[in-house]
Amino acid sequence: MARSTNVDALQRVIDHVFLPPKLPLQADEASELALIDTGLEALNSLGNTLLPDLVRAALGKAVKLLTNLRAVNSRPGGKTDETELRRILIALQPGQTLAVKVSAQNAAILVTRQLERLDFEEFELSPQNKAVIETKGRLVRTFPGLAVAVHADLLTQPDFSSMVASTIATMCHQKVPGMQPKSKKAGTDHDEHRDTTKPTMISELFFGVLRGIGSPTSVSTIVKHTRDEVLYDRADSPWRRSPMWLLIRVALQLVISRSPGGSYDLYKEIMVFIMTHILERASHLPTDTIFAMRAKIHWRLQKLSQAGRSILPGP
């Protein structure tokens, strides 16, 4: 039974990371923590290799990012632990980033500690079904969507850290009327629960409060060409690529590319390392699954080879 459970969990991780040809036809809400743990295992394994000092520093920030994400979104379904969120927020050191998945609002929040300020960034996680279904090829998306800076001294005021932690934890599980797309049934508009939630409560309400305390700020952004699917067959909710996996990729790319010694190329190599780490655990899976995984990794390696000299040590 334990082996069957482990195989199922690994297959779900592979579905979200690799998007193999055969995907489930119903929602998967049980893979959030497994995706974080898989990324952490791979990064810790990479940390045991011989790396240049600046690369090791960037990797250390990435490990801390996922460690904190795991602690904060540790409740069932990836919900937010308010106590851990407040503790980690207060303990952030300059250069460190905290990532939080605000599940019920379909949004992610990044908090980066600078010497004299805190940068709050926000972005939508899963795009609406219509955008996924009607777009040919990949969706082109820019991250983050908004950024607001507040003075770091606010962390010394218990009211501020408590307000942030309490607000985010509540928004993580509490749905808000009017944020769900509508569909007509028997001539009447109903909330379409099979679609994704608009992140308005984060982008307008919570970040509106932050703007009242601080001010909008400019941060470096990234453009990602993302793939997603909307698949269901006699199911209450469709299978969608995990929003947690999107959060992990976006947060890692931002943290690594912003670190001294970090870069977009380093991020891409680290992602290949994570994918290879998953492949090494999948030797007992069907050959068609392994073939699809190897093909995705090979394609990424080809793109990296065109970029020139590799940053990470070879096998």
Overview of this protein structure:
Helices cover 49% and strands 15% of the residues. It has helices spanning 2-18, 32-47, 53-72, 82-91, 129-134, 158-173, 200-213, 243-258, 264-280, 287-307; strands spanning 97-102, 107-113, 117-124, 139-143, 146-151, 182-185, 188-191, 215-216, 222-226. The strands form 3 sheets. It has a 5-stranded antiparallel beta sheet with strand order 1-2-3-5-8, with helices on both faces. A hairpin with a 4-residue loop joins strand 1 (97-102) and strand 2. The two termini are 35 Å apart. The relative contact order is 0.18.
Summarize the structure.
By secondary structure, this protein is of the alpha+beta class.
SSE diagram, text form:
Elements: H1 2-18, H2 32-47, H3 53-72, H4 82-91, E1 97-102, E2 107-113, E3 117-124, H5 129-134, E4 139-143, E5 146-151, H6 158-173, E6 182-185, E7 188-191, H7 200-213, E8 215-216, E9 222-226, H8 243-258, H9 264-280, H10 287-307
Antiparallel strand pairs: 1-2, 2-3, 3-5, 4-9, 5-8, 6-7
List keywords for this structure.
alpha+beta; 5-stranded antiparallel beta sheet; 10 helices; 15% strand
Largest sheet: 5 strands, antiparallel
Query: Radius of gyration over alpha carbons?
Result: 20 Å
Order of helices and strands: HHHHEEEHEEHEEHEEHHH
Overall average residue pLDDT: 91
Structural class: alpha+beta
User: What is the number of E strands?
Assistant: 9
Query: What level of helicity do the residues show?
Result: 40-55%
- Which ranges are low-confidence, i.e. pLDDT below 50, for 5 or more consecutive residues? none
Helices, by number, come to 10
Order of strands across the widest beta sheet? 1-2-3-5-8
Basic shape: globular
Distance between the termini: 35 Å
Strand content: 5-15%
